[in-house]
Design a protein that fits this description.
Blueprint: H1 4-17, H2 19-24, H3 26-29, H4 31-41, E1 48-52, H5 58-64, E2 69-74, H6 77-90, E3 95-99, E4 112-118, H7 127-137, E5 138-150, H8 155-158, H9 165-178, E6 186-187, E7 193-194, E8 198-205
Parallel strand pairs: 1-2, 1-4, 2-3, 4-5
Antiparallel strand pairs: 5-8, 6-7
Helix pairs in contact: 4-5
Bound molecules: S-adenosylmethionine.
Length: 208
């Protein structure tokens, strides 16, 4: 595994490069999808919420509509700047964004009633350490929730496709013919390839 600082540098470069495109992705901004996560957590109206790895801040702002106060942190400045711009455009005063590493959350033990993270665990160098940090800053009886991509539990399907981007199109086309990954690829009339990406939301309650 690369050194953690090297890994963080790759994350910063990548999410700086794609910040605008990522924020414009309709499936990322999708309010119904965000509402499903908010509903799964169901925070009380006086809850303090932390979103770890907030990116352009859509999830944080979704929680801000129903909770007392929300803080969104991220390792990368470019998506945080987009989040702050959206916050101002929407006139939200109960959400703020700050630069921080999920590995060392700059908050006291038990500061938040809800700690949530969407679509970032698969980018973390040390996911168990990040989860421990989320639990640490969550209050007793508070809620820790993670939403992320899941692959098929069928081993051969889970291992497919290979990582090399140049081969992905060929792999998807073969997948469509032979049902290799379980992601059900199909081609639109315009020739664009689409496939189904499964995500899971896991919500936990901290006991003490
Ligand atoms: C795919 S985006 C998800 C953004 C947002 N949670 C969402 O659902 O739209 C992943 C984000 O994780 C952030 N990230 C990756 N590693 C991180 C770390 N160690 N600490 C904080 N943020 C991190 C990246 O900067 C990026 O903004």
């Amino acid at each position: 595994m690369p050194h953690v600082q090297d890994h963080n540098q790759v994350v910063r470069e990548e999410f700086t490069r794609q910040a605008v495109a990522y924020a414009a992705n309709p499936s990322i901004a999708d309010p119904e999808r965000i509402a499903r996560l908010v509903q799964a957590v169901s925070p009380s109206a006086d809850a303090r919420v932390l979103e770890v790895a907030t990116g352009p801040g859509y999830v944080a702002m979704g929680f801000a509509a129903v909770a007392r106060e929300v803080v969104g942190i991220d390792l990368t400045e470019a998506p945080l700047a987009i989040a702050e711009q959206r916050r101002q455009e929407q006139g939200l005063h109960n959400v703020r964004f700050q630069l921080a590493d999920a590995a060392r959350l700059p908050f006291a033990d038990g500061e938040f009633d809800v700690v949530v993270c969407r679509l970032a665990f698969h980018h973390f160098a040390q996911p168990p350490g990040m989860l421990s940090e989320m639990v640490r800053v969550c209050a007793p009886h508070g809620t820790v929730a993670v939403e992320d991509i899941v692959v098929s539990e069928h081993p051969a399907r889970g291992a497919y496709p290979a990582e090399r981007a140049v081969e992905v199109r060929r792999l998807i086309e073969q997948d469509a013919r032979e049902d290799l990954s379980g992601t059900r690829p199909f081609q639109t009339d315009e020739g664009q390839w689409c496939f189904t990406q499964h995500t899971a939301i896991v919500v936990g309650r901290k006991l003490n």
